[in-house]
Amino acid sequence: MKKLMLFIKKHAPLFCACILAGILALSCVWLRDGIAERKKSGSGMRAFSETEKTDVQNKSLYHPPAFGEIILPYAMDTLVLNATTRVYETHPGTDYLCPDKCVYAVSDGRVESVKTDPMYGLTIVLLHENGDKSLYASLSTSNVKAGARVKMGDVIGEGGTSAQAEAETGPHLHFEYIRGGKSVPFSFTTAPET
User: Fold this and answer.
1) Residue 62 CB: number of other CB atoms within 10 A?
2) Which pTM value belongs to this model?
3) Is 60 a residue whose pLDDT tops 80?
4) What 8-state DSSP symbol labels residue 191?
5) Tell me, what DSSP letter sits at residue 169?
6) Is 86 left (phi over 0), alpha (psi -120 to 50) or beta?
């Protein structure tokens, strides 16, 4: 018994690493299967109906950046699995499916930049009248140029797969709302948190 205890004590880090690797592998499989099942069944946060789109547009403080389901939420205080890198990390934005491909300006503003980022892909950044910014990434096309003025609800581009960091996610919009230089949680029905 003493030899067994010495062996376990000597090799404890290896045992812990093996156990953690097993848990991580099971978590990855569970998450992958859960996402696949959600896509197949249509469960989870669903896309908007035409009536809901009109209702949201008429009653919200902001326009939704896309009308598809949320496939990966904002998660700066929680680690989430990146389906592309297979690494758990924080997620500074919200990923939306784009069933109608359209990406919308959440508020009035000016196009600060349109560029291709090595990780985010084709990206549009809007500077809003209150000094906040909104970032739209992984786009397939842009309908705007730097310096242009946009109104809330204008179609500024189309969701796509240009973000290398999220290539396994499929066509979508990666959206971030930035206040004071930092990404913050966003809801189109309430003012962004600080």
Assistant:
1) 22
2) 0.69
3) no
4) P
5) G
6) left
